[in-house]
Amino acid sequence: MNDCRPCCLTIAGSDSGGNAGVQADLRAFHAYGLHGCTVFAALTAQNPFGVSAIHGVPPDFVAAQLDAVLGVYSIAALKTGMLADPAVIEVVAEKLRARADIAKVIDPVMVATSGARLITDDAIMALKDKLLPLATVITPNVPEAETLSGLPLRCRADVREAARRLNGTFGCAVLIKGGHAVGDLEAAEDTLFDGKDFFASTMPWIANPVSTHGTGCSLAAALAAELALGRDLKSAVEGAKVYVHKAIASSYYVGENCGVLGFVEGCAAKWNT
Questions:
Q1: 115 annotated active-site
Q2: Which contiguous run of DSSP H or E holds residue 198?
């Protein structure tokens, strides 16, 4: 087993357009040279212009998928995406509760960039009660951080206070993603609070990108990959931020006004063969 390499797991929904969800996660894992395992929590019919249909996966089948991979593969880190069914959230939490050996990046997908609520209040409550307390790090965007903390975020001080509150509530590190402009925050500034110190990771805006669809999923997946490779949390956040910036910068068209994030090379560890 000396040549056994770490794996990453995604627990999320599909994207039939291949831009977000499980498909984006696998693309990130591959860029880091890691084998990716999957647990599908939902199937979606979508493209960069919207989601036209969602088909939920029964909780018992989610449990069966988790049992199939957790007992066999060397999962070093995982990430979760949109989990809209409270029963599915409970199953996922139950299966992960005993796996302290796995780094857990929980992306609490609740609010779209437009501000539209994506999951029900019952699902949000299940996330808060069952899953977020198990996280190594949570990665809310600004609207999600507002929902979870109950604090409107208008400036850098508000973002830091929300991160502090979420750390106190859930006992995990907090990365508030800076894709939404907030008052005095610099362009695309992500704020990390590890329970002791604050760190800011900033990248310049990319003017008129071909695509940004799937960036939240990609960031969480890249962060999980970085942690699976043994990097400390601050370095992992910085690496994941660079990954997403490069993916946006290299995005390209695959249809009329239809773009996808580019594939990022050079992230993979150098394995001994």
A1: no
A2: strand 198-202
